Amino acid sequence: MLQVFPDYYKDFHCIAGECRHNCCIGWEIDVDEETLAFYDTVDGELGERMRRCIDRGDTPHFALGADERCPFLNEQNLCDIITELGQKHLCQICADHPRFRCELPGRIETGLGLCCEAAGRLILGKYDPLRLVVVGDGGEEDETIALRDEILALLARRELPLAKRMGEALRLCGGGESEKTMQEWAEFLLTLERLEEDWTDVLSALTKKTPDFVAFDAVMRGRETEYEQFFAYLIYRHLANAADEVDLAARCSFAVLGTELLYALGALHYERTGTFTFDDQVELARRISAEIEYSDDNLEAVLDELAFA
């Protein structure tokens, strides 16, 4: 069995209470059966809270409290389960997040999701081209995996403009450029479920005007690798899951669309504020990831729109 992960994967660590967008706020977290069985054995005040604060409906989950906070997130934005029982007793979702896992024939691929700001800083702040680490043996030859590896190698050719590299990736996947303008895509995204009101605000602003890309190009000179890393992340995470040739093209188109959207929102931010920091970039990437990638319905809607446009 092959184990595959990005070369930055093992450098990740949670920043806990320093996180501005805590993953314990606003997300309904399911509790797996094995962990739930252990929680039922916990004594004392914590055990009583567990039995009181876990909704045992069809899918057991933590019942969110005021401001949609997990009931075990304390005033210091730290997890009481970790502080009292240790990290090994987290439920599976909490233990894994923001890691994702994709099981394929003969291989398991893991990575870090960009909905986490600490992961975002690690991924977008990486200068060297993405390199995948492959451990183990076996595995099966797979045309999609081979194609993805070819695209990642293409992305490392920095003598070519990123737009040209993304265009060649589209060609390799049998895709074409979207006929929608970025304003039209913003209008489409506004028809989908939205997690944060700020996302509504930035999309609404994008529907009303085209940002000044010329000025923003000058601001981002020397920071182009942030967009390369974003595109590489989307290619690594989503291309291997393609069900067929149409889906493959749509997933590559999604990587292009996501990167172009990130750039457009950055340009709009710069135009409105006169500045655009690395932290601003990480925050925009986090929003795109949380609002599209981490909603199965939204991701499916975008892929369908790209597949049948």
Give a written overview of the molecule.
The protein contains 14 helices and 6 strands. The protein has helices at residues 33-39, 44-53, 80-85, 92-96, 117-124, 143-155, 162-172, 182-189, 197-208, 213-219, 225-238, 245-273, 278-293, 296-307; strands spanning 2-6, 54-55, 61-62, 99-104, 107-112, 132-135. Strand 4 and strand 5 form a beta hairpin. The radius of gyration is 21 Å and the shape is globular.
SS elements, strand count: 6
- In the predicted model, the low-confidence regions spanning at least 5 consecutive residues are none
What can be said about the biggest beta sheet?
Answer: 4 strands, mixed
Radius of gyration: 21 Å
Kindly report how far apart the N and C termini lie: 38 Å
Structural class, by secondary structure, is alpha+beta
How would you name the oligomeric state of the polypeptide chains in this document?
Answer: single chain
Roughly how much helix do the residues carry, as a percent range? 40-55%
